Amino acid sequence: MKVVRLGEEILRQKAEPVAEITDEIRALIRDMFDTMVAEDGVGLAAPQVGKNLRLFVVKADDGIERAFINPQIIATSQELVSYEEGCLSIPKIYEEVVRPEKITVQALNERGRRITLDADGFLARVIQHEYDHLDGVLFIDRIDPAKKAKIEQKFLKKAAEKEA
Q1: Which residues carry out catalysis?
Q2: Which of 71, 100, 147, 155 gives a 20 to 30 Å CA spacing to 111?
């Protein structure tokens, strides 16, 4: 699958809920895991592969593949931590982002079972990053506005040069 890059409209749209978990959705999930691994990522949201669906996959530091369909973050800790983030849709750009240390997320898995997961550390960060994608939010939206503007300018200039 092709990963959508910064500047493509779908990355800024609020994704639509998955109406039904079908074989097509399960195949999409498998393809997303394959793409994420091929791109050396730890998470991938459906909008990043051009699908406007509330769905993302992660495989963080615990090595467990997890799919989240129609997720909701239902709790976040007061404790915040800063950590360098990157994104497959904004390659080679890394910035410090402050996020809650712990979260609780509810979602459906690929079998249609409701899951509730308490996550902390790196897994919590990856889930929050991918969850943001479902609302059209990128990690650069959570950094200093001047830095964000420079990154967008630089990245979009490179994209325009490639097309020329």
Answers
A1: 130
A2: 100
For residue 34, the Cα-to-chain-centroid distance in whole angstroms is: 15
Q: Cβ of 61: how many Cβ atoms within 10 Å?
A: 10
Which residue stretches of 2-50 are H helix? 23-38
Residue ranges of the domains in the chain? 9-163
Long-range pairs of 108-115 with CB within 8 A, sequence gap ≥ 24: 108/18, 108/21, 108/68, 108/69, 108/70, 109/66, 109/67, 109/68, 109/69, 110/21, 110/25, 110/26, 110/29, 110/67, 110/69, 111/21, 112/21, 115/68
Overall pTM surpassing 0.90 (yes/no) = yes
Q: Read off the pLDDT of residues 94-127 as tens digits, 9 standing for 90 and up.
A: 999 999 999 999 999 999 999 999 999 999 999 9
CATH number of 9-163: 3.90.45.10
